[in-house]
Structure formats: C-alpha cells, structure tokens
Amino acid sequence: MPKLWTETIEAxxxxxxxxxxxxxxxxxxxxxxxxxxxxxxxxxxGIGRATLYKYFPDVETILHAWHERKILGHLGYLAxxxxxxxDPRGRLAAVLEAYALISHSHAHHDTELAALLHRDEQVxxxxxxxxxxxxxxxxxxxxxxDVRSDVxxxxxxxxxLHALAxxxxxxxxxxxxxxxxxxxAGLRSQR
Length: 191
Description:
Layout: H1 3-31, H2 38-45, H3 49-55, H4 59-84, H5 88-105, H6 111-117, H7 121-143, H8 153-164, H9 173-187
C-alpha cells in the first residue's frame, strides 16, 4: 500500500476517533453517564454503529480513552512548563503552580464520571509519573541548596501533591497561587 494512502487512512481514523471521544464526553455532560448509549454516540458523531464498534466496544472504554488523552495532555503540559523555567527552584515552583491550577480547574467535574475514571490503573500510573517528576525537581532544588535536605525528596514530593490537592476546593486562582507559595515555603532550605 502506498505511503500516502496509509497516512490518509491513519489520519481519517484519528479524526473519527477524536470525534467519538469528544461526542461521548458532550453526551455524558448533557445526559449523565448512565443515560448515554452507543447508538447516541454513533448518531452524534455521524457514523454508523458498526463503525463505532470497530473503534470501541462500549461507552466506558470510550471514556477511558478520552481520560487517558487528557492525562497525557496534562503530563505533557507540565513537562513543557518544567522545561521553560531556568533554575531548579523556578522549575519546581512553575510545575507546582501548573499542577495546582489544573487541579483547581477540574474540581467541579461530574462526580459520577470522576468516580468511574479515577479508579482506573492509568490514573495510578499518572500519579506515579507526576510524583516522580516532582521528586526529580526536588532533587535538583536540594542540590542547588534551595530546598531542605533533612527530608527525603520522595516524602517532599508526596507533601507537595497532598498539599496541592487542596487547590480543588479553592474559589480563585489567586487562592491557588497562595497555596502554592505556602507549599513552597514548607520546602525551603533552612540555610
């Protein structure tokens, strides 16, 4: 099969997959998790049910695929934020703030949908990846003398994640930024 043909087919599959993911999320937001059917998704997407089933076996699988894409997007965004800061303390502060703002912006999502998606193995993997990213940033900041060295970097990373979980309940981005500052104060070197 010619390369152009293969690329065209793959692009079409990606577009159909994207449309399925987005249509499903919209339907769940409008009608609730338990009300959405594969027939509704096929109709909303403009494809046949048989085609839909070639992509996904059920609504739950579609939602997990959508959620995985969101998680990967967030992790990619945090990596970009990390890579654009100049010094170890700046990288750590920037990633903690970005993570807290992401948490804050997702605080009011459908609890039924969150319950389904957050018991998944991909969430645990993402949490471990995030903890590792923050731990590595803490190690850099410890080496630079910016962060305390009397507590292990793994414990400090856990501290950051637990402290910043509070961002979900805050009412403003200003409050989220204050929480980040308080969290960073707890990390400061005592020199």
